[in-house]
Amino acid sequence: MNTDPIADYLTRVRNAIKANHRVVEIPASNLKKEITKVLFDKGYIANYKFEEAAVQGTIKIALKYNPISKIPAIRTLTRVSKPGLRKYAGIDNMPRVLNGLGIAILSTSKGVMTDKEARLQNVGGEVLCYVY
Fold it and tell me: How does it assemble (predicted)?
C-alpha cells in the first residue's frame, strides 16, 4: 500500500534518470497518465506508452537525454503538494518555476495542466510538482 502514488511516480522517474536508464515502468492511474502527457507535450520525456495488460496497467516512459552530452532533459523533479500538507495556488499566486524556464504541474477543475496554461484559462488548483 502506497500512501502517495504521485511521489512514487516522481521518485521512479528520478531514480531512472540517475541510473541513466532509457525506459522506466510505472503502475498506472488516471492522474499519472495525465502527468505523463504533460511531460511529453512540454518535451521533458521522449515518448510514453500505456499498457492495459495487467489489472492496474503500466506506463512505459522513454526518458529523454541530450545525444551529445548525455545530460537528461529533466534536471529536477520536485513534489510540492503532499498528502500531509496540500498546496493550492489561485490565479493571483500561481508559481513560476525558474522564472518561467521550468513548469509547475497543477491539478485543476479543467484537468491536469501547467502553470502557464492555468494562467491562460484563469483557473487555480493543487500544485502537484515542479519540473525543470
Answer: Part of the 30S ribosomal subunit. Contacts proteins S5 and S12.
Residue 28 has a CB neighbour count (10 Å cut-off) of 20
By three-state DSSP, how is residue 31 classified?
helix
**Contacts from 94-99 at CB under 8 Å and sequence distance 24+?**
94/118, 94/119, 94/124, 95/127, 95/130, 97/130, 97/131, 97/132, 98/132
Q: What end-to-end distance do the CA atoms of the chain give, in Å?
A: 29
Summary mean pLDDT of the chain: 95
Over residues 24-69, the pLDDT tens digits come to 999 999 999 999 999 999 999 999 999 998 788 999 999 999 999 9
